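Journal club side-thread
Mid-discussion, someone asked how the predicted structure for our own chain would compare to the paper's figures. Pasting it here so we can look after the session.
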Amino acid sequence: MNQAIHILMSGHGTDHMETVQNLASQLPDVNIKKKLLNRGDYDFLDNSDFKADVLIHFLGAKPAMELEALAMQSRRGKLARLAILIVYDQDSAGAQLMRLAMQAGACDFIMGPKLVDDTLTALRTILKKGFHDHPVSGRALTAVINSQGGGGASTIACALAHAFTTRHEIKTLLLDLDLQFGTQCLRLGIESPKGLIDAIASIETLDEVALMAYVAKHSSGLHILHGSIKDISLPGEIDVPQLKRLIELAYKGYEHVVADLPRLIDPVFNMVLEQANHVIIVMQQDISSLRAAQRMIQIMTQDLGLPLERIMPVLNRYESKHSIGLAEVEQVLTLPAITVIPNDFKQLCMAFNLGISIAEHAPNSPATQAILSLADILSGKKKPVKLGLFKQLLSPLFSGA
């Protein structure tokens, strides 16, 4: 887990202060606290256990006195290792104020008509240079895809991403790559005017902080990057190198990316598989779904060169009394372990219709518990439990097909 950056905002309470707080709180891996100063109160730092990395101070009616007090605290070592931004709600400042700000150790003195934008830009610069240099080597990407349409892959992808965020406190981006019929924002009852297509179009000017303007943000902390709700995107229109750059950029701001892939073998599919640490193939207990899973594994391993150990089969909506049991499923595939998710279609469908996560709507559902266990495995918090062996042969069900 990335360590959160603690930002303390101090001042006498202004509209600009409130606006900056609301916008800055959307940046990745930040924890913001506000300290309102009373008249004559120059104790800028909070006395609680909140250890600030960045101090943003909004000057009040007596700016010189505030900066003198801040400079004195700096000389006493109370502001050591703090990045300090001074914000002044005026169009200009005298030489004395600028000099006092420098004595206080301020990184920047911000004023003028674009005060809010300039404050956020200065903050992004501090975060980018000092804190958000996440190594790409530490990233994780989990791709989720149906073996056949309607298998429940999008539900599982959403639930996994939500579990990473809430259960394991992993900064997670859910990437909805179904650019025509994606439902991930709908599942959680949120929306965003911008999305994946807009982000790709702006990739030349984006960094991991600016990317935040394009994601939809859920109250749990989960971020979603979805397809356009205004324009239709056809297969082949996505610039694959630019999408790859976007994913690599996401690695710098997120610890885990969950990609909800449509059932379409194309260059986008191939590129995401190359990036993925795990590829979850979701199937059901019917012959066509199992046959499609068998075929998909063959394409991934033989045609696309994906290592077999990266593939995780998930048997969704499992019923123990079904005519095709687990033993028959094991005869089809050639992988060492399987995850079984019990059938609870009614509860999961209701959660979708209500626009809330399945963990919130039905936390005790066997399906929810199975997905949470899968999230434990993928997050590295729990060792996988071997629920069955896959025999290295093809099922007689499909012989001659």
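Post-session note: The CA atoms of residues 347 and 362 lie 7 Å apart.
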